[in-house]
Amino acid sequence: MRYKNTIQHARAKFLKRKDLSEKERILLEKDFSGKDYIYYQHIEGHEIVLPEQYSADATYSKIEPVFAGKHTHQSVLKYAVAAVLFICTTISLYYINSNPKILTVSTTYGEKRSITLPDGSTVTLNSLSSVSYPKKMKGKIREVVLEGEAFFNIVKNDRKTFIVKAQEIEVKVLGTQFNVFAYMDDDKIVTSLYEGSVTVSSDSGEIFQLRPGEQAIYDKHIKSIDIECFEENAKDWMDGSLYFDHKPLKEIWKTLDREMNVSFEVSDQVNSDLRITASFNRNDSIDDILDILGQTGEFTFERTGNVYIIKAIDDE
Questions:
Q1: Burial of residue 208 (number of CB atoms within 10 Å: 0-12, 13-18, 19+)
Q2: Does pTM surpass 0.85?
Q3: Pairing mode, if any, of strands 169-173 and 177-182?
Q4: What one-character DSSP code corresponds to residue 33?
Q5: Environment class of residue 129 by beta-carbon count within 10 Å: exposed (0-12), middle (13-18) or buried (19+)?
Q6: pLDDT digit string (tens) for 272-289?
Q7: Which one, of 136, 137, 133, lies nearest residue 105 by Cα?
Q8: pLDDT digits (tens, 9 = 90+) for 13-46
Q9: What are the angstrom distances between the C-alpha of 298 and each of 11, 13, 172?
Q10: Beta bridge partners of 131
């Protein structure tokens, strides 16, 4: 206890702008790199909780007399900077010592990639997607953050809930197989359940429990979730296939962009809201795919570098 009392005395002197002895300075420097002044980390919100003597109000009460007194501008600046550095050092060391290391795995155009998480669960990423997860999954929650699309095969653990955070959606499971589609440039976030059970909730407060064969479709514009049934071949992308189930052309353009690393300039005369059901394999070229889609969508195309110009047949 004497060691802690000595450090507390040095802390008080520091905040009161008193000169420190060499011994006190060394003790305070060691204290900066220690953990005895760190309280705890809230599991959900990662809230910083510091001892009362280092709260904003307490620290300001120590600094405020400097501004009220007859000190020079240089003295005021010196003490203010010292106090700010003290607070910043405390918070920085808190995060270094309490936050787990986060790993991120990403894919590029047309790339598919499978990874194994620390708990043994597997994640298969679709094109232009990324998943972030802690190097060690400690505590009662296994949590990952997804951008893009991924298929999850989660190892069952009744004591540790698995959570996928994807923009405005949160998916909770214990052990199951499901797919999450959550690209930033898309209007919807889709969670499709293949096995087991998942709970899907949104920032707007909606909560739904899915059964196998159901998918939760979250509309970003109206902030609402709809539940629909889906076809089993919706995860054919894992084998390199392209499957469009009643998809509007405007969504197909986005998928082809991600898969083929091309972009589209589409004439206003093309009905981009037209819904199409079609399936293509990994060996089909972009030109072959557009030829087939054009027969239904009544459009033609021409290529300039990496850009495809799409025109309605009536424009010819």
A1: middle
A2: no
A3: unpaired
A4: T
A5: buried
A6: 999 999 888 878 899 999
A7: 133
A8: 665 567 778 777 777 666 555 433 332 233 333 3
A9: 76, 80, 43
A10: 105, 146
